[in-house]
Design a protein that fits this description.
This protein is an alpha/beta fold and 451 residues long. The protein has 23 helices and 7 strands. It has a 5-stranded parallel β-sheet with strand order 2-5-1-6-7, with helices on both faces. A two-stranded antiparallel ribbon has the order 3-4. It is globular. It starts with a helix and ends in a 16-residue tail after the last helix. 39% of the residues are buried. The structure holds 2-acetamido-2-deoxy-beta-D-glucopyranose (3 copies).
Length: 451
Amino acid sequence: MQCSWKSMVLLVLASIAIQYTAIRTFSTNPLSLLCSVGLAATGHAVNCSLKDLARVGPETLEGSDHGCDEIVSHTPAAPSPSPSPSLPSYNANKRTHILILATTRSGSSFVGQLFNQNPEVFYLFEPLYHVQLALLPRLAQSRNLAERKVMLGAARDLLRSLYHCHLNSLESYIQPRPAKHSTDKLFRRGASRSLCSPPVCELPLGPKEQSLVLADEGECARKCGPLNVSLAADACRATRHAAIKTVRIPQISDLRALIEDPRLNLKVVQLVRDPRGILASRIETFRDTYRLWRLWRATGRRPHNLDLGQINTVCEDFLRSVSTGLARPPWLKGRYMLLRYEDLARFPLQKTRELYSFLGLVLNHNVEDWIINNTRGSSDLSSRQKFTTVRDSAANAENWRVKLSFDMVVYTQTVCQPLLGLLGYKAVFRPRELRNLSHSLVEDRTFLPFL
Ligand SMILES: *[C@@H]1O[C@H](CO)[C@@H](O)[C@H](O)[C@H]1NC(C)=O
Ligand SMILES: *[C@@H]1O[C@H](CO)[C@@H](O)[C@H](O)[C@H]1NC(C)=O
Ligand SMILES: *[C@@H]1O[C@H](CO)[C@@H](O)[C@H](O)[C@H]1NC(C)=O
């Protein structure tokens, strides 16, 4: 592989920029980084002195309920949830930061909604999009190790800032650069309930209008006007927990520095899906990138220049990441849960309860209602709804079996064979087996969270 001097210079410049951003974030307000989270909304005066800073070590914060970065008391205005006795791990004081580690077309929007629908969670949909766009505009699938490292370093720094509600860290990556902390360029803003509801978006037309804005992503961007980033940061601080969904972190080991950070209390939900299902869904969604696969499906002949890179990447990243997770290294204790999309599609309520229990969060009735509304009934798959989650999830998880040709299925499952075995997805050897939907290709497996 060659690395021209131009790209080297670019990489060096990019890493300097990232370090500068990170240093600035820390140096402008080192105390706020530790102490502001959750406190602004409570109105409590908290002594968060330099002594606290010195005291912050892995032992003090991990085990204690009195660290200065925790919510001291709950906002009086918000309804106080009563801790359920069936959730022994629930800790009323601890702010939990959740990362949904996923890949495109693996059901991550659906999983994101399980948090977005919860009023106690501040949810962001793919903020790392802006990092990738700013640093690697034309190298979306970069396999170059140096570029990947720069991108991941920036991604980690940004995630850390966002969990601490320093939303203005995101502004450095948004183009054009927001003026006066106000932007209409935030990627998929409408996918975050908190960014489309009061106080971030206050509509004069009343509750009916407001619920319309929440039901339709585009409506939020049209009706709410530019996003006031300072208001959004306030909303983040006023919310008990924060969740971020991303498809731009390849493996769990890329997150190790964040997971080991005792101030962060980060828990990772790794979402996986049968790679054959991911492939079928991507072929429908990313029509240009997967053009040759569509040609194969239409003609019945595999194009000789078919790009296997994309599906290889999915399977390699899953395999490495899941192997790491299932090996249970000490640094993942209490921090990692593996979730198969197919299990969630078949048993949405049960799996969501397991998820919430692992995270130590109380399952809110809004979330349960949303699941009931969105996993039964209409399965309207019109193209406008490509990115929405309003559909029958169970039917959706399986429909690759009627969308891919038998050859394509055999080819993919051969490339991804070790992963299929690890995750309990069965290979098929005859077309009849593939199309017979009463014959399940998902082995019953229980992947218990590492507690
Ligand atoms: C954003 O909100 C803050 C706090 O309410 C306010 O002071 C500021 O003027 C707002 N910014 C814009 C551009 O509206
Ligand atoms: C569920 O659907 C009902 C009936 O359409 C609606 O009134 C309710 O607001 C929905 N709830 C959620 C959480 O989507
Ligand atoms: C479909 O699979 C089921 C369950 O494995 C089996 O009982 C049934 O005979 C199969 N049907 C056909 C047409 O092969």
